[in-house]
Design a protein that fits this description.
alpha/beta, Helix Hairpins, about 45% helix, about 270 residues, 10 helices
Amino acid sequence: MKQIKESGAGLKLSRRLSALAEWVPQGARFADIGTDHALLPVFLALNGKISYAVAGDIHAGPVEAAKRQVAEAGLEQTVSVRLGDGMAVLQPGEVDTVTIAGMGGSLMARILDQANDRLNGVRTLILSPHVAEDAVRRWLVQHRFVLDKEMLLEEDGVIYTLMRAFLTPDPTEAESLNSALYDEKLLAPAIAKLPSVLLYEMGPLLLRRPTEAFHRKWEEEIAKRERVILQLSHATAPEAAEKAREWEEDVREIREVLACLPAEKPSSN
């Protein structure tokens, strides 16, 4: 993937936004929640990949910047820029594809939870939480969305998680697909039963195709947790020792998983 992608009109996207753009279905009616300057919907519209877009942001400054971006591109009839909280900017059935990026997973899950009927008609979710990815994966499973892509992408020294999921309307089919996806025997016989918490934290598709970035991300996570353990070891509260033991068990399990995965595989998803 190129470092920067550029449309015919000269609009440039970061590597992360470029990757998200590639996952948008052709002809989508698209919403970018937390759009900032509306770079993604404008890029997609200029390249003929979407038929319509809503660019929403909770802050007035980015909304004004987004409106200027849309006007300069001559896309006022295609991209509607709106000020509002989360998916409150949408009407039920207005779009079929939603992207949310650049925020924590817990906030992202809350935005999706609060969407209610504004999710009507949405078949594709393209998400990039920067922490608490497990919260997003759990929300997807609980609402009949099934992951079909996961990717780790490094940009400016930060490893980002990207994921795409499709709605499976039939509850029985959705449950069956997600049960297979989050199979606790995924790493058998090396690990007879993988804790479900790690499947949600580490990503079921990422675990199936681990890359160098995956190993590096989780080595960094181990280092963070070991710093917490060290801090807890100096605490005098009785519960600190128990908490330290829990974190030590987390680290042990993560190390066990990493040890039975290939050190490196091709990074394409």
